[in-house]
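Batch job 17 of 40 flagged for manual review because the log was empty.
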Amino acid sequence: MRNTVNHAIALRIQQLLKEKEMTRYRLAMNSGLTHSTLKNIIHETIRDNKLSTTILIAAGFGMTVSEFLNSSLFNEENLEL
């Protein structure tokens, strides 16, 4: 099954929240995003995530954007582009 980039980002956020035992509220605080923006990304109501937002989310997890994107979710064969 192929995912959209937005769906892959939402899945990756959920995966990392679980792994790091972090709440969405804590991630929002750490990343500098509003809780509602983060909620909209996770629920995929934002049509096109910006790279700058993805960088902030990665930083909120204490990782680089490269580390955030280092998941099979983002392999081209798994994405609908």
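Reviewer: the log was empty due to a logging misconfiguration, but the result itself is present. The first helix runs from residue 5 to 19. Unflagging and moving on to job 18.
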